[in-house]
Amino acid sequence: MTLPTGCVVLVVVVSFFALAARAGEHPADAQPVVTPTAVAQTTPVPHAGDAADDPAIWVHPTDPAQSLIIGTDKRGGLITYDVNGRQLAIVSPTARPNNVDVLYDVPLGGRREDLAVAGCRDPGSLGLKFWTINRQRRTLTDVTADGAVPVFDHTEPYGTCVYRSPKTGKHFVFVNDKKGAQEQYELHDAGAGKVGATRVRSFKLETETEGCVCDDERGLVYIAEERVGIWRFAAEPDGGDRGTLIARCGEHGLQGDVEGLTLYCAAGGKGYLIASSQGNSTFKVYHRDGGNEFVCTIDPVDGAFDDVDHTDGIAVTNRPLGPQFGAGVLVIQDGVNRGGNQNFKLFRWEDIARDRLLIDVKWDPRGTNPSGGSSRGN
Question: Looking at CB atoms within 10 Å, which of 194, 247, 270, 375 has the fewest?
Answer without folding.
Answer: 375
